Amino acid sequence: LIMGGPMMGFTLPHSQVPITKTANCILAPTRHEISAHQYEMECIRCGQCAEACPASLLPQQLQWHAKADEYDKLEELNLKDCIECGACAFVCPSKIPLVQYYRQAKAEIRTRTQEAEAAERAKLRFEEKKARMEREKAERENRFKKAADDRRKEM
Predict the structure, then answer these.
(1) Which domain of life is it from (predicted)?
(2) What residues does each domain of the chain span?
(3) CA-CA-CA-CA torsion for 66, 69, 70, 72, nearest 10 degrees?
(4) Nearest C-alpha neighbor of 81 from the set 101, 102, 67
(5) What values do phi and psi take at 47, rounded to 5?
(6) Per residue in 139-151, pLDDT tens?
(7) Terminus of the chain with fewer CB atoms < 10 Å: N or C?
(8) CA–CA distance, 32 with 34 (Å, rounded to integer)
């Protein structure tokens, strides 16, 4: 089963996935309608993917950086602007599943961003706790000093 249409759709892991109002298309092709093995070949740098891209991105470069796990470069090339329409993969004579690479790279970028944000929040919490503990320690020392001074005055 393919949800989302022939170009932008993705294969469902099983048939028990619920259908929501955001599902615009469900395809149930037979095994004869879909080729089981589409072998990816090397990019021949024909440029058809760049011509087909409605977002005017550079699919070849995005694919190279996605394969090399160069996520900073992908962000510089605006991978997030890719609408995952599948036009680039459709016109690719080398049958490179470009959108698959982009989806994986986007997921990794999202994960790294979330981890970095979580680490930053943890760092801020730690620094705030440390400052609070130092403040409480100083207050405690001041109380002890004041109590000691009061006892000296009483003597």
Answers:
(1) Bacteria
(2) 1-34, 45-143
(3) 90
(4) 102
(5) 85, 5
(6) 999 999 999 988 8
(7) C
(8) 6
Neighbouring residues of 60: CB distance < 8 A, sequence distance ≥ 6? 43, 45, 47, 49, 50
* Mean pLDDT value across residues 4-17: 78
Residue with tokens 């680490």: 119
Residue 109: Cβ-neighbour burial (10 angstroms; 0-12, 13-18, 19+): middle
Alpha helix (H) ranges present in the chain? 48-52, 59-67, 71-76, 87-91, 98-154
CA distance 40 to 31: 20
Tell me the per-residue pLDDT of 82-136, one tens digit each, with 9 for 90 and over.
Answer: 999 999 999 999 999 999 999 999 999 999 999 999 999 999 999 999 999 999 9
Residue written as tokens 């329409």?
85
How many whole angstroms separate alpha carbon 36 and alpha carbon 41? 16
The identity of residue 109, as a single letter, is I
